[in-house]
Task: structure prediction
Amino acid sequence: MHDIRLLTPMGNGSPKIILPYYTREVADKLDKAGFPLIDKLIMDEKSGKTIEEGFDNYCKTLSDLKPGVTLLILHLGKEGEELEHITSRHWSRDQQYRIFTDPRLAEFIKKENIHLLGWRELKEKVWDQRDKSIKKVF
Result:
């Protein structure tokens, strides 16, 4: 288990492709080899009836995080005609955008000692510090 809390934004790709192969045996081998593992995956949206309710929901979710690497999948979007054509939940994507660009949330994340890392930073901080050959693991 890692000793700091990480909130890792999702890049391209889908966890649906990876998760069926992610067994305890595979996780143990990867962990032993020093690969960064995702300790918690949060895919359910926390939007509320209002932006304030959504803000409170996300703050609660973030404050409940345990030490380790958490992957929080968000679908941010700015309200508009284009977003309305993409999804019927355009209001939720706009709410997430407003919440996660709100300076209050940045302050909350700092206060909670949550470290935001993208995939590149996670790679540089963890992946690059270990033997890069996954073939040796399996």
The chain has one domain: 5-136. Strands lie at 5-9, 40-42, 68-72, 114-116.
